[in-house]
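User: Transcriptional regulator, GntR family, Paraburkholderia xenovorans:
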Amino acid sequence: MSSEPEHDKNAPLRHADVHATLTRELADGRFPVGSRFPNEEELQKRFQVGRHTVREALKKLADQGYIDRRRKSGTVVLSNEPAVRYIQLLGTISNLFDFGTHTELKVRSFGFVRLRDPHLCELLKLPPDERWLRIAGVRMQPDNPAPLCWSEYYLPPCYAISREDLDRLVGPIYAQVLKRHGLQLDHVDQEIGSTALRANASALLQVPRGSPALTEVRRYFEGAGALMEATINLYPAGRYVVRSRIERQSDIKSAQ
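Assistant: Predicted structure for Transcriptional regulator, GntR family:
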């Protein structure tokens, strides 16, 4: 039986058709993990499509964690099933808003706490022994049973929200704070590092204790310069990808 997608014989194949066929073949084991995956020219010839169509299909496979495209060594098969990971585009505030909209927070803890952990205070750059609202839980993606990350949100009392507000929340927490207090977001500081997951976090994230994880800390500042939220997200290895675009400054361009 042919694995080619069903389509109008007179209509050209779209990248979605090529992607669907390759996805089925990966799931069936036609391309074993660790093996070389067909290159662009081979796929163009096989499907009788243009380079753009093939590149779009390959890009989607790479985003889903099926393949790894390497400039010099070619494309390698990473998995026969899609990876549980989230692609985060960074460049504007709206990109941060997308994360809170496209994922759902399953709250495990809500209440005011005293910041007594020196490591946590140093990580979030918060003064010790102050009273902050702590919201903690796991972030989930639609149609993915495995949690994406463990998230902790810290809000000062002046910007705290109620549990009822949280239950009705659509989108990120910081957006609710801005709306409630009539504020504008000025900037967000972000730091990315790594750690080994402790027992409680690893159990909730369904990975072994001590598993490597990406640590993402964000600090949200409103227009007057006050810190309105500090957040830490812990992502098990392979579940989160940060993608950004870096361009030359105009003065550098003009000098060349």
